[in-house]
């Protein structure tokens, strides 16, 4: 039997949606070695003075929890 745990995370970038997603990948990869996938839930932006000030990617990621329990 295997178990998979799912967590939600928001990546934020002043550059682009791609960079916000890259921030997510970098963060979870540095914390977990057993990530099996990412699902994008939504894309949003912050606006200041009529300009985009931040790009945000809301995502869920899954990782093998069983491996974590046995380490």
Strand content: over 45%
* CATH overall fold name: Dodecin subunit-like
Whole-number mean pLDDT? 90
* Share of residues in helices: 25-40%
Number of domains: 1
Q: Biggest sheet, strands in spatial order?
A: 1-3-2
Please report the first level of CATH classification, the CATH class. Answer: Alpha Beta
Order of helices and strands: EHEEH
The CATH superfamily is Flavin-binding protein dodecin
**Termini distance?**
16 Å
Helix/strand class: alpha+beta
Task: Please give the number of β-strands.
Answer: 3
Task: Please tag this protein with its features.
three-stranded antiparallel beta sheet, 71 residues, elongated, alpha+beta, Dodecin subunit-like, 28% helix, 2 helices
Q: Can you describe what's shown?
A:
The protein has a single domain (4-69), classed as Dodecin subunit-like, CATH 3.30.1660.10. The protein contains 2 helices and 3 strands. The chain has a 3-stranded antiparallel β-sheet. The protein has helices at residues 17-31, 65-69; strands spanning 4-13, 35-48, 51-64. With 71 residues, it is an alpha+beta fold.
Q: What is this structure's SSE topology?
A:
Blueprint: E1 4-13, H1 17-31, E2 35-48, E3 51-64, H2 65-69
Antiparallel strand pairs: 1-3, 2-3
Brief overview, please?
The chain has a single domain (4-69), classed as Flavin-binding protein dodecin (Dodecin subunit-like, 2-Layer Sandwich), CATH 3.30.1660.10. Helix content is 28%, strand content 54%.
């Amino acid at each position: 039997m295997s178990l998979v745990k799912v967590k939600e995370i928001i990546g934020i970038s002043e550059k682009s949606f791609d960079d916000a997603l890259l921030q997510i990948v970098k963060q979870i990869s540095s914390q977990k070695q057993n990530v099996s996938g990412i699902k994008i839930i939504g894309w949003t932006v912050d606006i200041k003075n009529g300009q985009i000030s931040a790009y945000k990617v809301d995502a869920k990621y899954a990782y093998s929890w069983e491996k974590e329990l046995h380490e």
